[in-house]
Design brief:
about 120 residues; flat; mainly alpha
Length: about 120
């Protein structure tokens, strides 16, 4: 029974953080691929044209920095094991009621509804 509960919690944790896990996989895959390409080009440029190695190094560092920034900016959305169950419930409720949300998405279709900006402007 304990194995079942721990596996269910692990599956819920992974499911709640799929976007972050996917971003981590993309980051690691691209990091290793770029590293392989960089070492091959580095060896080639060291033999043929060492002056242009700086451009390759700058480009490599820029791409790695952008990938790291992209991944690290998604970490605040990481949900812990205790919050993963609640995250799954929220996702299910949004998926179940997506048609209800799309009905009131456009405020112009319902003139009685007003955005908070319009309300605050009318109050002043």
């Amino acid at each position: 029974m304990i194995k079942f509960i721990s596996r269910a919690a692990l599956i819920a944790f992974i499911y709640a953080n799929t976007t972050i896990i996917l971003r981590l996989a993309i980051f690691l895959t691209s990091f290793f691929c770029l590293n392989i390409f960089y070492t091959k080009w580095e060896n080639l440029l060291l033999l043929s044209n060492p002056d242009s190695l700086f451009i390759l190094l700058s480009l490599y560092n820029l791409i790695i920095f952008i990938l790291m920034l992209w991944f690290f900016l998604s970490l605040p959305f990481f949900s812990s094991i205790s919050r993963s169950k609640k995250t799954l419930e929220v996702r299910k409720s949004i998926a179940d009621r997506s048609d209800q949300y799309s009905k009131i998405k456009d405020v112009r279709l319902y003139p009685k509804l007003k955005s908070s900006i319009n309300k605050s402007l009318e109050e002043q």
